[in-house]
Design a protein that fits this description.
Layout (H helix, E strand, L loop, with lengths): L12 E10 L4 E8 L5 E8 L3 E6 L5 E9 L4 E5 L2 E3 L6 H13 L1 E12 L10 E11 L11 E6 H10 L5 H13 L3
Parallel strand pairs: 4-9
Antiparallel strand pairs: 1-2, 2-3, 4-7, 5-6, 5-10, 8-9
Helix pairs in contact: 2-3
Length: 185
């Protein structure tokens, strides 16, 4: 299969750009770029501070997820606890903060599981994934605009939902599959 690009460095260079929207969660840029073949194009890019996703797995093989309404898609999703990085915040600190805020859980161990780029075609968001184990319950304290329902289920059931397509939140799919591999499932 030929792609039309041979022996060239696949890199795009910024020529000019502007921020067309700046919000509290993200910024949107419109950049004029030079392609690797020398021609010019426009890229619209969502700039995001990055975030974390934490899959809490209890000793009995269950996980704790949060169900919340997601306005952009108009439905409630079952998700691993997650949130954005605050300025200067390290991913591990954000993972502990988000897990505590959304679920009240405090992990005895927090294992990094790498990172994912959910939509690199238009967004620079990078999500760091973590596996939380040896869990202790405290009080949850979600943000004012977070209305969450906590749902505990077997990890095996979550994996079945991923495979049958009924669970399709990308960060939760990635975290669950990585956790299952780490746990030898």
């Amino acid at each position: 299969m030929e792609s039309g690009v041979r022996n060239m460095e696949l890199k795009e260079t910024l020529l000019s750009g502007e921020t067309v929207f700046s919000g509290r969660l993200l910024d949107v840029r419109r950049d004029r770029i030079r392609l690797a073949n020398g021609s010019e194009s426009i890229r619209e890019v969502v700039r995001h501070p990055g975030g974390v996703t934490v899959l809490p797995v209890f000793d009995d093989g269950t996980v704790l997820l949060v169900r919340q309404f997601r306005y952009p898609i108009g439905e409630a999703l079952l998700e691993a606890p997650a949130g954005k990085l605050e300025p200067g915040e390290e991913p591990e600190a954000a993972a502990l903060r988000e897990l505590s805020e959304e679920t009240g859980l405090i992990p005895g161990s927090l294992t990094p599981m790498g990172a994912i780029l959910p939509s690199p075609g238009f967004c620079d968001e990078k999500l760091s994934l973590f596996l939380a184990r040896d869990l202790r319950q405290a009080d949850a304290h979600p943000d004012e605009d977070e209305l969450l329902e906590l749902v505990r289920m077997p990890l095996s059931e979550l994996l079945d939902q991923i495979m049958d397509g009924s669970q399709y939140d990308a960060k939760t799919v990635a975290a669950a599959l990585k956790a299952a591999r780490l746990l030898g499932l």
